[in-house]
Amino acid sequence: MSTTTSLTSDIAFRTYLLRLADDRLILGQRISEWCGHGPELEEDLALANIALDLIGHSSALYEYANQFDERGDLTPDHFVYFRDDPEFTNLQLCELPRGDYAFTTARLFLFSSFSFFLYRNLQSIEDEQFRGMIQKHLKEVKYHLRHSRDWVIKLGDGTDISHQKIQEALNELWMYIGELFYADEVDQLMVYSGNGTDTSVFHGEWKQLVEQTLTEATLEIPDWDQFMISGSRKGIHSEHLGHLLAQMQFLRRSHQDADWQ
Questions:
Q1: pTM of the predicted protein model
Q2: End-to-end CA distance of the chain
Q3: What is the 3-state secondary structure of 144-160?
Q4: Which of 36, 91, 105, 187 is most buried per CB count within 10 Å?
């Protein structure tokens, strides 16, 4: 693997952490929109807890990313509330509107299954603090995967309506999964430094898990070779992110001197 790059190791590490954090912040925000609107009380609480997990993971990652910034005085609030959409590097998969329950379930399964393999492989990285964070968060990622996978199977192998809805959700989401395995010089430098992982090494395992799950759910597997969206790691997003950030950031930007404790 070539390691020729104009990036310093600190900038690459910061970028890597921000990508992980942005994914989890934005998806957590989307899932939090279900609070009080879940199909049943237990699922309402489960989704609320998953949203809190993801937002908590992002907060820890933002805090650590600040240590690799030149100023070193940025808080998680800065990364969440005072960046515009081109500065966010989250996957477009995470920013899509909430959709119905089947859409939320399918998206969470696709993201959590990828996160499981990613975090599993990151458990042996060199940086002690980052490694400890990953090991702690992996326990919750396993729950997210188990929970969403079970619901994909229940909906797919349920009624005609639930089957149709989860199939439509997967068909709509499929063009966004290619970005899960996007890799550039940041990822190369992180692998070279011992603080990242080559996602291509577990692509086969992830694909097998997805296919096994959809087969068990009696669902059709969409075309793996169809057109895939790209560009979000470089700040290219859908219009949906701008709308989400406007809602999420408005109050904090309006009262920048407020004490939020």
A1: 0.93
A2: 46
A3: HHHHHHHHHHHHHCCCH
A4: 105
HEC assignment per residue over 186-255: HHHHHHHHCCCCCHHHHHHHHHHHHHHHHHHCCCCCCCCCCCCCCCHHHCCCCHHHHHHHHHHHHHHHHC
List pLDDT tens digits, range 32-41: 998 888 778 7
Buried b (16+ CB within 10 A) or exposed e, 22-43: bbbbbbbbbbbbbeeebeeeee
Residues 6+ apart with CB under 8 A from 72: 66
pLDDT attached to residue 6: 63
Backbone angles phi, psi at 69, to 5 degrees: -95, 150
Residue type, 64: Y
Q: How many helices (H) and strands (E) does the chain have?
A: 10, 0
